[in-house]
Amino acid sequence: MPSQASLLRLAPQKHKHAILEPMALIGREIASSLIERKVNRRAPQFAPAGQSTQMIIGASPENDFQILRLSQGLYKKMNLKRVYYSAYMPVTADNRLPVLASPPLLREHRLYQADWLLRFYGFSAEEILSEDAPHLDESFDPKTAWALRHPEFFPVEINRADYATLLRVPGIGVLSAKRIIAARRFSLITHESIKKIGVVLKRAKYFIICSGRPFEKSDQQPAHIRQQLLLGESRGPLILPLPRQLVLPGLFA
User: Fold this and answer.
1) Can you spell out the DSSP letters for 183-242?
2) Are strands 208-210 and 52-57 parallel, antiparallel or unpaired?
3) pLDDT at position 239, please?
């Protein structure tokens, strides 16, 4: 569960420290193993698959900001490789559990996207959400939602921006950012060449310029961009992950 209060309410036989202390021990052993292997590559590797955990989403009242801050803390303090999020699917009636019309699969999907930003894109939980805005936007992925809230960061010049800045642009992922950096060593990126790099232009075009030239010459106010992005999202279905919950505790590959 995402909090001690919810754990006490829904699983009173379990205790926070009994869960976190073994995780902390495993995290310390993983860190020690990594240091030892830097000195001696033949040293045994501890928990090579890494350590992971799972949180049930929607069975308790915690908001997305609380969940992301918890995940962020687990990544930093426990050396976790992965946090899994599972939409709550009721299998029994109990007055301690909420009555849901359907599992919160879209919320699960957005949390996975936000988690990706924490692990690979250099975002913090406090950048993605806040106490005043604690819920992920259902209409957009978290990076696009962040970009719409921060127009001062854009447009980004494709031919000059560093790697960390490129990662903040909606539609540019880790692989396409690396390709942009590599391609710039030989020639300037053009409007035509960027299409071959793998950038998702239907989102990125509102947030980038190329040698000073914008991709979109229309109104660039956040409200207009939001409207245009919504039109683009409506043209294709959102594919959600299949409902599932992990049933085995412990380590996962």
Assistant:
1) HTTTS---HHHHTTTT--HHHHTTTEEETTEES--S---HHHHHHHHHHHHHTS---PPP
2) unpaired
3) 44
* Total count of residues recorded for the chain: 253
What global pTM score does this model have? 0.86
**First CA to last CA across the chain, in angstroms?**
22
Per-residue pLDDT tens digits for 110-139 = 999 999 999 999 999 999 999 999 999 999
Any bridge partners for residue 209, and if so which? 157, 214
101, 104, 81, 118: which is closest to 129 by C-alpha? 118
Judge contact between 116 and 106, C-beta under 8 A: no
- Distance of alpha carbon 167 from alpha carbon 123, whole angstroms: 10
pLDDT digits (tens, 9 = 90+) for 159-177: 999 999 999 999 999 999 9
Strands 213-214 and 208-210 come out as antiparallel
Cα–Cα separations (whole angstroms), residue 179 to 43, 207, 229: 35, 18, 25
**Is it the case that residue 219 has pLDDT exceeding 80?**
no
Closest CA to 148 of 133, 131, 163: 133
Tokens of 202: 């239907």
